[in-house]
Design goal:
The chain is built from 4 helices and 4 strands; from the N terminus they run H-E-E-E-H-H-E-H. The protein is α+β, with helices and mostly antiparallel strands. The N and C termini lie far apart (about 35 Å).
Amino acid sequence: MTNKEENYTFTKAERVTGAKRVDAIFASGISFISYPLRVVFAQHEQSPTPICSILVTVPKKRIKKAVHRNRIKRLIREAYRLNKRLVNDIELNKQSLDIAFVYIKDENSNYKEIDKAMKKALKQVAIRIKKTEPSE
């Protein structure tokens, strides 16, 4: 693999797992909306896991059929996988970043709409993290 090629993988280590981490994101995280996604992110101490981990949820209240919920989750993960460089390029000063994507639209979306929202969301996360960094 040459240094010009980017790593477009999405490993299991890049997923937020465990109730404590999930609760921490929603309890102390910063949230905003990039329709049709609600984005909640929180920084925490560096762990052996990758710098950025994500959580994808599609509420049963909004999308009733499991088939449609799973498709939307796949589309969100794919959009993140292809655009994660937008958030991985920022310096976190020995901290990790957890991001939760919550689907808030009442109908199914196509990939184009989700990809557009994902790009906007990741750019916004990068901007907000740079704002909160302490200047040296």
